[in-house]
Amino acid sequence: MSSHESGGATHVVLTAILVNALVTISKAAGWLISLSPSMLAETIHSLADTVNQSLVYMGIRISKKGPTRDFPMGYGQARYLWNLISATGIFFIGFGITTYHGVSSLFGDHHFQGSYLLVITILGFAFIAEGYALLIAYKDVYSRKGDLSLFQWIKEGDDPTTVGILIEDAIAVLGVILAAFGIALTYLFHNPVFDSIASIIIGLLLGFMAITMGYANGRLLINRSIAVSSENEIREFLISLPEINNISSLKTEIISPDVISLSVDFNINSDIINQDPQLADELSKIDMNLDELKMTVKMIGQLINSIENKVYKQFPEIQYIDLEIN
Fold first, then answer.
1. Which residues on neighbouring strands pair with residue 322, listed in sequence order?
2. Alpha carbon distance 91, 94 (integer Å)
3. Taking each helix axis from N to C terminus, what angle separates 160-189 and 78-89, rounded to the nearest 10 degrees?
4. Whole-angstrom distance, CA of residue 46 vs CA of residue 324
5. DSSP letter, residue 257
6. Distance (Å, rounded) from C-alpha 60 to C-alpha 77?
7. Closest CA to 34 of 181, 175, 192
8. How far apart are CA 187 and CA 163, in angstroms?
9. Contact 279/257 with Cβ under 8 angstroms?
10. pLDDT in tens, 248-296
């Protein structure tokens, strides 16, 4: 990921935090006025989104720290860790409490209070605000996912942060619509069961979102490799280099959204050795003195450095390379 893309993710998250904080306050006011179960579900929903996105932003900030002695590859995976923590919170708080309250109100004695029009107006404001946040997230994700479908991006992408925000915002908009329908049907039929059912559905949506985010981030904390198509592209590039004859092993690991580690076992192209008389002569000697051995090691080192520099130039996201000659 480029710095521009990283900045885009930060912009998406900050926009979502601001929007959801304002919407949470408005929905809480609507719930206090009406005591509507679906309004409470939406309040918890927006509060969970606000806290979740704050944790995501914290992860982004921490992940930008450079390498240290204790963390020689940096803090890149902190982003995935905090995303996973936020997904856990959404599952237990958003899904758990919302669904429990919806079921309780379904079998309890609940009566809608206050003005239906005022509550619907609040939901209208929430729809516009969260729709704007959804549009921002949509533009960012679709500008970066390339030819991958949204499902493939969730399954294979190395930065589930903005796609997680996209899903959150989409479910937030859907939740507002469900709450509005539940309240409207409760008003039309004078039956609070519609309000309670809307609350339960919103809770189930939060559960789905938490599981999706948990999967998308959890897989990146257990040494996930990059997509097969990307690995094949790297392999083809290496094979095209004159220094390499064949590759016996190629492994990748996602360190963070903008950092990849590459490990390759390969055989040197004998033609390259033959083209360098000095190197060919040195390697043909069975018994070398110390000076000759040092010279040979130095020349092999220069060969490996040449390969590394070409890889760094072609694939800037690869920042750690382990090359081993068979």
1. 263
2. 6
3. 20
4. 51
5. T
6. 9
7. 192
8. 36
9. no
10. 999 999 887 778 999 999 888 766 655 555 555 555 554 555 455 455 5
